[in-house]
Amino acid sequence: AQSVSQHNHHVILSEAASLELGCNYSYGGTVNLFWYVQYPGQHLQLLLKYFSGDPLVKGIKGFEAEFIKSKFSFNLRKPSVQWSDTAEYFCAVNRPTSGTYKYIFGTGTRLKVLA
Amino acid sequence: EPEVTQTPSHQVTQMGQEVILRCVPISNHLYFYWYRQILGQKVEFLVSFYNNEISEKSEIFDDQFSVERPDGSNFTLKIRSTKLEDSAMYFCASSEGQHYGYTFGSGTRLTVV
Description:
B: 4-stranded antiparallel beta sheet
């Protein structure tokens, strides 16, 4: 079935460690890609998005993601995490050329950063 | 920064009762959405709304669900006869256009007892 996969469900890191969260999707054709963050008790916030152009996308709070079309991946990275990055991270995809603008979300990755 | 506002933040209702979840999208946004997240599960699309009509809906969005934009500012989700399995966090979102990221509201936690 077509889907969005986030293989890391729980990640625990120490402060200053580097972060990479995986996101793979199984849709062909043109896709728009997003990473959202949900801090404890808060709403989903857009971290970054990719529509076209440079496959390395920089977002807020020092996050970046790289779109690798051949691997159907859009992994999220941050060189040095902080305690305040503790949150749940969701990858999402939409497929504009299929006539739909709904997002398909991954199952989320819960990140805990130890001070 | 403009926000999408959702009320109430938490609603408890008895099975079989009707509930209305309210959302105030960002004022210049044209596309509106409802998503839900059952505890511990992924965020799921319910419905999208544009130009005063539903543009797309999922299989979850059955006859028990309806949406409305009654006054040009509010965007509501109604569940006519709630079931236990409707218990979830419901998120409203809006966007300026189809090629923009959504702005999500803070959600309404619906608990059906």
